[in-house]
Amino acid sequence: MLWVWLTLGAAFMQNVRSLLQRQLSAAEAGQLTILGATYVRFLYAVPFAWLGAALLFADRPFAGQAIPDAGPAFWLSSAVGGIAQIGATAALLGSFRRRSFAVGTAFSKTEAMQTAAFGFVLLGDSLPWLALAGILVSLFGVVVMTLQGNPRNGVHWQGGVGVGLLAGAGFAVAAVCYRGAALSLSEGAFLNRALATLAVVLTVQTLAMGLLLRLREPGTVTAVLAAWRPGAAVGAAGALASAGWFSAMTLQNAALVRALGQVELIFAFLTSVWLFRERVRWRDAIGASLLLAGVALLI
To answer: Residue by residue, what is the 3-state secondary structure of the chain?
Structure first.
């Protein structure tokens, strides 16, 4: 059951990171674009990831294994997963500007079903019927929570759904690729393989996005570097969240991890109510109850 606790901790820290990123992307003082706020999450997480990996591998009695030997499958899976997560994170931040904090996060939660599909196709991972039922119930709860108060505003609603589905697909591909990369390492305890994968993925993401920003938004890199104080907080929270996700997915089917990780929506809902004073709807209460029921089936 270690993967359960790792997932719950990762979901909580991811909500903290998303909250900090939302404040960054909306801040007028820093003039950060969506891509800039996304880059903060990767750039400032790299030092924490490499520090954690260095401490782990330097302490051989705790690690118990040598540094894992990485092959082509590891590098390919890490690169594809890293790029997919960049697109998914940017889409998620974009959804924050379209709607509320809780709903923007909720749209991305379709990733659980998509992860199950991608995991079956790419890795051959299968799920028991009870787990599938839990994913479906929690997914229905997410749908209930994301229903519009004004359904006649169809164009706005469809646009939000499209961004959310895109983010969910990106996160699903990333999750499956990260699990595949960690499992492709021939040796090492689960924590060794998880942190090695995390450090490489974050490095790939930082380099790839840094090049993209230099080409499309040259001034954004300077703004990101200037925001190092809040950026360090985002990076620390992101590194902790990612370490939890990677470790849990090394131990367990990625679809189960991402499905259980939907409890982040509960954290986001509480954040939107307590911090942002957003209106609570009866659909939110019903949807949250269904989501928790689905999580109970998973556990």
So the answer is: CHHHHHHHHHHHHHHHHHHHHHHHHHCCCCCCCHHHHHHHHHHCCHHHHHHHHHHHHHCHHHHCCCCCCCCHHHHHHHHHHHHHHHHHHHHHHHHHHHCCHHHHHHHHHHHHHHHHHHHHHHCCCCCCHHHHHHHHHHHHHHHHHCCCCCCCCHHHHHHHHHHHHHHHHHHHHHHHHHHHHHHHCCCCCHHHHHHHHHHHHHHHHHHHHHHHHHHHCHHHHHHHHHCHHHHHHHHHHHHHHHHHHHHHHHHCCHHHHHHHHHHHHHHHHHHHHHCCCCCCCHHHHHHHHHHHHHHHHHC
